[in-house]
Amino acid sequence: MSKVKNISLSAAGEKELSWARENMPILSGIRERFEKEKPLKGVRISVALHLEKKTGILLETLQAGGAEIAASSCNPLTTDDSVAAALSKKMEIFAWSGQSKEEYYGCLNAVLEQKPQIVIDDGCDLINLLHGKRQELLPQIIGACEETTTGVIRLKAMQSAGKLKFPVMSVNDAYSKHLFDNRYGTGQSTLDAIMRITNKLIAGKTAVVLGYGWCGRGIASRLRGMGASVIVCEIGSRLGESGIGTEDGACKPASAQQKRESGCHRALEALYDGFRVMGIDEAASLGDIFITATGNKNAIDVSHIEKMKNGAIVCNAGHFNNEIDIEGITKKGARKEVLKENLECFTLKNGKCIYLLSEGRLVNLARPSGQGHPIEIMDGSFAVQALSAEYLVKNKGKLKAGVISVPCGIDDEVARLALFSQGIILPKPTKEQIEYSTAWEHGT
Ligand code: NAD
Ligand code: ADE
User: Residues enclosing ligand 1, CB less than 6 A?
Assistant: First the structure.
């Protein structure tokens, strides 16, 4: 039995779904095939994704393939209540915007009541629950799909510790996902949300972007496009399994695949992309707008907030709301005043007012200002999700527990379909070109 905020919003939600459906040609194609072939017939899929209109179209696609769906959000603030109401007429939905922590976990537990075979997660909270309090459900799990960078980091840590009990497709690591979703999706939707909340001009402001990963690159480039003077802050060491916290910064990737650029490489990239680059200690007093996209805790800490200008705007585009140390400034006696939805002023002991957007949660998704990524972007990301779920079912029992890459066949096909949806068809390489690309004999 579904639980949503207000079922009378369902007509409005259906209109939102229709708009998204009309603009998601890749998922439409997959849905048509799923309707005929029913590759997910009778498969129980538990979902924790930001529950908004594009997510609704993914859920309809999985349902068209024969799946039984139970879905919640993966964040207490990101459910579109009208879309949740509309979806609850078709499938089991446990989600509303503005949840307490207890309500959030209550909804995750509720979707698990269907005894899932497949799990689709964004941030790894649902998968984590299955490995903790809900272990009794592990035996029937075929596998899972994970949407975001932070979730994949948590999964790789579970795998390294020998704790991951089923195969999980790393959807985030597919090129068709992170190259476009994390970069262009987060770039556009983060600025969109900041402008909706503050109604302020971007041009002429000094904007500080923390983290020059896929999301940070997108945000920085869009800020520059709108006329901001952009400072990029990075961290001068490797993170994750490649030596977090090691004094000597030793690089110990578990495999060549896991080796990637360090914070220094990314800082240098930002510099050569034409941005000012410095540490947050220095940038704190210079910025008018601060945006974190690091996936890391306390990227902006109390000492940085205290250095900021009176009236500085601070927000987060990373998965969890711990990138900005709000708890820390509250403990130091900052007074919070809610000015309107998604906008709070924290008056510090030093008398300065710092504006925090969307409680420090994903600014581009927190309702009502956050709409999530543009529709075309989520069409690609969710196409990878739908095909990955199908892959898990097709390969039931054959995949080992652990983090699994999305096969090239799926990744390349989604990029091809995305181009096709924009009217672009590329030529295939000739026989001669294929031969040349694998040969070593040819020289000048
Ligand atoms: P990424 O790993 O590509 O980039 C993160 C960058 O932050 C790295 O370059 C790292 O060196 C840097 N960093 C880490 N700690 C830092 C610190 N203290 N100060 C400055 N820089 C620091 O990750 P990504 O794909 O860009 O994702 C970043 C976060 O955004 C993750 O939490 C991810 O889950 C989330 N995400 C959000 C959205 C959205 O819609 N808002 C979309 C995709 C991903
Ligand atoms: N809409 C639904 N899921 C999303 C995500 N992970 N990022 C941005 N927008 C979304």
Answer: 148-150, 178, 182, 186, 210-216, 233-235, 239, 263, 266, 293-296, 299, 317-319, 362, 364-365
Task: Name residue, tokens 């498969």.
Answer: 43
- Give 430's DSSP letter: P
Beta strands 335-340 and 343-347: pairing type?
antiparallel
- The pLDDT value recorded for residue 243 is 37
Determine the Cα–Cα distance for residues 273 and 135; give it in Å rounded to an integer.
47
Q: What atom of ligand 1 comes closest to residue 317's alpha carbon?
A: 41
- Ligand 2, atom 10, lies closest to the CA of 372
In a mutational test of the pocket of ligand 1, which residue from 232, 266, 294 has the highest number of ligand atoms less than 8 Å from its CB?
294
Residue in the block written with tokens 């997959």:
30
Per-residue pLDDT of 163-188, as tens digits, reads 999 999 999 999 999 999 999 999 99
CA distances from 442 to 226, 430, 435, 437, 438 (A): 47, 17, 11, 10, 10
d(C-alpha 124, C-alpha 126), whole Å:
6
Picking from 290, 148, 130, the residue whose alpha carbon sits closest to that of residue 219 is 290
Domains of the chain from N-terminus onward: 7-173+372-421 (3.40.50.1480), 185-360 (3.40.50.720)
What are the pLDDT digits (tens) for 320-331? Answer: 999 999 999 999
The 10 Å Cβ neighbour count of residue 135 is 11
pTM of the model as a whole: 0.95
Distance 373 CA to ligand 2 centre (A): 6
Identity of residue 170 = S
The whole-angstrom separation of Cα 208 and Cα 188 is 16
